[in-house]
Specification:
Elements lengths: L1 H34 L2 H14 L3 H26 L3 H8 L3 H32 L3 H17 L3 H27 L3 H9 L8 H12 L3 H12 L7 H30 L10 H41 L4 H5 L1 H19 L3 H25 L3 H4 L6 H29 L1
Length: 411
């Protein structure tokens, strides 16, 4: 009997380790794929056309800033076991409620674009009417959260779609034969570096702004991977997420660089699709459809899941009915997208909200790193604090710039 019990206990431990590892991979992929949405594909294609190999400098700077944002956030959220909004409320009472509402509003606006991106990808693949594609994309997103235990489903779907994106973009980077030597050289010696400030700030907001930074950390809490005793696991998850996102960024840049260095002018209405089509003909165009569909769907999952995770501690009913709120979030996004078609102003507003909120959220995390009532006896590395402070300064500048975009909405 005792031997049977030992075997059962061992099986339980194995299952626990397996689910732990799966949740870590899931947290890494939900963060990485949230950062690589339809907007990122367009931005990378546009800026690569504009700056060619020198855009490699922006890619590497954005990766370094990503490290500063993500490792800070994952560590403090992981060690404290508290969500971003709860940490903010500890720092300044009421600030967490303000942050949660801003993140949710920005997440909703971006999610409308994410649904639209997934629909465009489906349209490229099937040729169906765009409104039907919007409805189908919304339904796919809903299907994931209809499962009562949605966490493991999210992990599996984001991993599968994330790996598919990397393989396709890797193939495109191989086919277009980019000048890798030139790209490496320009990473450290870009032409006209002053002109790269704007694309750097744009990429920063799009890859660590708003809900994106917290997607992985909040997934860790739901998976129960918290406390200083799990710091190695937390670090591993953060590093995995950064590596996955960085591989995708570099491969996408190289794939498009291989096209633009041949003197091809990309279609400004859809530069990424144009690059894939010029790089590998109709096969490349269909591959772009798959990548866009995957990028849209994973971003829909990440935006809905993380935005509602910010709201769930504000009222017991949201926490109790979290899955229904996420479903409602996706339904609202798909409905607005169907009615409005191309919600350009909403996307400008979303970018502005992210620009304003990023310095607040990272600033809160840095203050929390020194609070014993939040992190206990945990000692946060100085280099992380310094890199985090640099991000706050850059994001603060971006936030001021974003105010002009908000004025565009009023007039």
């Amino acid at each position: 009997m005792s031997e049977e019990r030992l075997i059962v206990e061992e099986e339980k431990k194995k299952k626990g380790k397996s689910s732990h590892a799966s949740a870590l991979f899931g947290a890494a992929f939900i963060m990485a794929t949230s950062a690589i949405g339809p907007g990122f594909l367009t931005q990378t294609a546009t800026f690569t056309q504009q700056f060619a190999a020198s855009f490699a400098f922006v890619i590497i700077v954005s990766v370094l800033l990503d490290v500063g944002a993500q490792v800070n956030v994952w560590r403090i959220i992981g060690v404290s076991g508290m969500r971003g909004q709860d940490i903010a409320n500890k720092i300044v009472p009421g600030l967490g409620h303000f942050v949660a509402i801003l993140v949710a509003l920005g997440g909703l606006a971006f999610n409308i674009g994410n649904v639209g991106g997934a629909a465009l990808g489906l349209n490229v693949l099937t040729g169906m009417d765009i409104k039907i594609c919007v409805i189908i994309s919304g339904l796919i997103g809903l299907g994931i959260f209809l499962n009562k235990d949605a966490g493991p489903v999210i992990d599996k779907v984001t991993k599968a779609l994330g790996m598919m994106m990397i393989l396709i973009v890797g193939y495109m980077a191989f086919v277009t034969k980019p000048p890798i030597g030139e790209a490496i050289f320009r990473t450290f010696a870009p032409e006209n570096p002053g002109s790269l400030v704007f694309p750097t700030i744009t990429l920063l907001g799009g890859t660590v702004g708003g809900y994106i930074t917290f997607a992985g950390g909040h997934r860790l809490i739901d998976a129960g991977i918290t406390g200083e005793e799990n710091i190695k696991e937390i670090n591993k998850g953060a590093v995995m997420g950064i590596v996955i996102a960085s591989i995708m960024r570099v491969l996408l840049f190289l794939a498009i660089l291989g096209v633009v260095v041949k003197g091809v002018q990309l279609d400004p209405s859809n530069p990424a699709a144009s690059a894939f089509q010029h790089g590998a003909g109709m096969v490349g165009y269909k591959f772009f459809g798959l990548v866009l569909l995957a990028a849209g769907l994973t971003s829909v999952i990440g935006a809905a899941y993380t935005s509602v995770s910010f709201l769930k501690t504000l009222h017991p009913s949201i926490n109790k009915h979290e899955r229904h709120w996420i479903i409602g979030f996706i339904v609202a996004s798909a409905t607005i997208m169907t009615i409005l078609g191309k919600p350009a102003k909403l996307l400008i507003l979303a970018g502005s909200l992210n620009g304003l909120i990023l310095p607040i959220t990272i600033g809160v995390i840095l203050l929390a790193a020194k609070r014993k009532d939040i992190v206990g006896d945990y000692k946060h590395p100085t280099w992380m604090l310094v890199l985090g402070l640099l991000i706050v300064l850059i994001a603060g500048y971006a936030g001021v710039m974003s105010l002009s975009k908000m004025q565009m909405l009023i007039h």
